Amino acid sequence: MSEHPTDFSLVTAVLPNSSAARITPKLLERSGANMLTWKARGTLLQDHWFKRWLPPISPIKSMLQMLVPNAEAGRVVSSVVEDARLHQQATGAVFSTPCQNTFFGNASKPWPMREGAELSKSGHDLSENLTAIFCIVGPRLSDRVAKAAIRAGAHGPLVYYSEGRGLRDRLGWLRITKENEKEVLMVLTEESQADDLFATMANAGELHLPGRGFMYRLKINRGLFNLPSRITPHHYDANMQQIIHAIDHLNGHKHWRDQAVFEVGGGRGVGFEAPKNTTKLVDQVCLSTFAPRDDCQVVMDCLLDNGAPGLSMSLARYTANSGANLGQARVSGEFGMLRCITDEVTAARLRDAVAQEKDTAEFERMCLFTNAVPMVATYVPGAKDYREASPLAEAS
Amino acid sequence: MANLMDNPRYKLGFGDTLRIVWPYVKRNFMNQVEGIWFIVTYLIVFQLLVLQLPIVYASMIAVGIFIVALGLMFFMEGLRLGLMPLGEEIGSVLPKNSRMPVILVFAFLLGAGATFAEPAIAVLKAAGSGVKATDAPLLYSLLNDFSGQLVSSVGVGVGFAVMLGVLRFFFAWPLKYMAMPAVAMLLGISFYFYQIPVLNDVLGLAWDCGAVTTGPVTVPLVLALGIGVCRVVSSGSGGGGHSGFGIVTLASLFPILAVLLLSLYHYNADDYWGAENYEGDVTVATAAPLEDEKPQMEKALEPISMIEFGAYLQDGQLPSDYELEFRGGEAQLVDGKIELANPEVVIQKLYKREFTVTGGESWDSSTPLADQLWQSLTDALRAIIPLCLFLYIVLRMVLKQRLAQPGDVGIGVTFALVGMALFGLGIALGLTPLGGQLGSNVPVAFAEILPWGLDHVEGPLFDGHWGKFAAIGFAFFLGYGATLAEPALNALGDTVERITVGAFRKKLLMQSVALGVAVGIAAGVLKMAYNLPLFWMLAPSYSLVLVLTFFAPHSFVNFSWDSAGVTTGPITVPLVLAMGLGVGANVPGVSDGFGILALASVGPILTVLTVGLYTQHAQRNERNEETEESESPNPTEAVGA
What we know:
The complex is a heterodimer.
Chain A: E1 2-3, E2 8-16, H1 17-27, E3 34-41, E4 45-46, E5 60-69, H2 70-83, E6 92-104, E7 130-137, H3 139-151, E8 158-165, E9 182-190, H4 191-204, E10 213-219, E11 222-226, E12 230-231, H5 240-251, H6 256-261, E13 284-292, H7 293-305, E14 311-320, E15 324-326, E16 329-331, E17 333-343, H8 344-356, E18 367-373, E19 376-378
Parallel strand pairs in A: 4-12
Antiparallel strand pairs in A: 1-6, 2-5, 2-6, 3-5, 3-14, 6-11, 6-18, 7-9, 7-10, 8-9, 8-14, 10-19, 13-17, 13-18, 14-17, 15-16
Helix pairs in contact in A: 3-4
Chain B: H1 14-50, H2 58-97, H3 100-117, H4 121-127, H5 137-144, H6 147-171, H7 176-194, H8 197-200, H9 202-212, H10 218-232, E1 233-234, H11 247-269, H12 284-287, H13 306-315, E2 322-327, E3 330-334, E4 337-341, E5 344-349, H14 369-398, H15 406-441, H16 464-485, H17 487-499, H18 506-530, H19 535-551, H20 554-566, H21 572-585, H22 596-631, H23 635-640
Antiparallel strand pairs in B: 2-5, 3-4
């Protein structure tokens, strides 16, 4: 295993199942290309007067992820935009996240470089000032955080499952006491609104209390999102979202939203509360590891032994161009994503530890990369009494 | 590299261990209490307040219910840690490491084996305890002479169902197009049976077989297997073939077919009781005495005192509330009137609702605790160990794969075992006596019966049809509450929520299934109370199900048909059967308690499909906006032009 010379980007697409199934073969037509498919759900609030008190509706979505060389990322993103018709309302989202220090196991194949000819080009402009907010909370909290995010102006968050690993795994047989599943909420937003949205979600989830959850932000290179947030009654001629999007199209940018709408209440961002009591962490990076499901345990042990604070593990289906068939179905593998947020020193140590094990069978098909994390919110034990207020500050 | 799982990093003292375990135990225990509080409260309130009858064995029942919650807690954790990961592991390894014939043989063996591990024949025997050979000879023979064949044919049916269910994943056959023809065929055969009296008796048994075959161990295992397979298998096209559900559905349809065919065979071979080729040694004498065991049907009437009698003789003044009865005499129809010749006229004072309680015992001493515990422990061992052993051997020997987390699975299987044993004990101590009392007391609403623990007969509390309606209303809530506590349904709910990543909540599924079962059981009691033909209750409801299935989205078809298979489990069955038999015993012409469970399986299909159609409708709003947008010209281009 060695650090790959080229820079990679993680391209993520959020689509309804039907269009995900349509796009997958197109993206995988070249041999060696592979992707991970995650099951996820969207969130929709209902605006009917009596349905407001019902739990949000959750349409099933798929999340596709590919690790693509930087040079290709733009083309892959715009091809997804074109094929999934992402310029239309409520269709989905696609974005690419820049990755640093990408490692590949001996047997894992990076996404092949190719001539861009086969990929459809898109005439639609991609936004470049986006950011992704991830919030990991228990299943009981996720609805509250999702509602708060939508009310603060975000789209309906995408939710997928992950398993918190690390702490309780060290407790021997007591590991059975860990909670089943955590839910990861992902929200895409304009960078200018990200701080306020981040604070709103952190407050809604009460992340300053111990054991509540973890939030972080990742930078996005470029992307486009058109995710729905609400179901409005029939008698609205055009809903607010449609009007805003029409104005976006007319202006050619989204900056007008800041100036025109959000300055009404005095400060920018009407209705945003000041963040309270959240512990700040500086110089954090997000270290992600992909490994086949069967090898995850060994990789996880290696990371935890070398000082990873805790991992969130989620499972996805691995689809590659080549694959075995049984009946009429394709037999594919499963990959796990192990992700932890830690400081740069620890991350470097973890990378070295993984590099040392590179010849082990379990590490052959894995890959590892890091992303810069500009902001984190969680409860940090011992750092401070959590009941005391301490303002959340931007890191780096 | 040190393995974290084997070498715990932190050494914990007793206090710390307790501090970690306690919230875990509390959380899981309260989850179970949440499931069973409704049914327990409801049963007690109904017995004490509505029927105004005492609860016999009260403290035994209280202890039993506590044990049920404890057992459920262990069992559900056992499913999560042990049985379901084991099933999933096998499911996900099978397609990678083996060829199609191996997979199919494995699936068949699993299905058939699960049926023998959790035999439903005891339940069926209980339901058919009142069957008289003279009334329903074929049914009687099936339950007694051919009970071995009955279990085997159900086992074979389930085996084929699991096989076909797994095959379905590989070819992405939508469940819709498998279940609909199967049900249509079953209805067709049932219609044929309906027209022949001897075969008609068997219908209830056959349809119930489908409902009871899938028990609390089989369902989670089979679900997990399907999910494991679908984790690695994909065919690109949608169609709902790959959600991992559907095996349970087929496993509840095929046994019906198997039992129908078995009875058809015996019908044609003429070797059932009373037919030409009958070889059994059961004589009518064993079945007949049931006739005489009716409780003495005399009310504890207030005798008319000598003083009142003297008053009557003097001025013909009757006591304030009295009843006039004509006994004997010869009735004749004369000019459209009934004329009684020489009747004996009896005047009685009306019955007053005052009684003394004789059965004030708080603990049933007839069955020792140790025996009960031993019984439930052996049942649990038989239900869990052979299946797990079979799965483990297949994993190690055939697939040559090691368990990912053997420690967790070991703990899980132990938990499941302990849980199952406690659960069985709790049911025997708590729920069965409570449900049995109440079930047999319910007919007091419309008939005269001898309730538990009283020295004389009671009832009817309501006049005419109202009493029967009261019993039906009781059945509705009983079905609702019992279903919420069912462990197999809880496991299904968890799985559905996990597979859809929370898009379909467990709570929504549980509530809609419980409502469906409630409707189904109420319909079943209606059938018993008025002795309606089962076919005419099954045919319309299943036809409606077929129509809804046709329109519903694929994923909902899978959940709803699967939830029908899991509804009838160890909590519902004893409660419902006790009540069904109690009601049936007081309605002339009803000999068995069959049919209620079959109807209880139709209900949830209907309700979950309805929820599915509603959700589809609600999400259409989103899609409407999408299409409107795509049809309208792009605003930027409009400006440019």
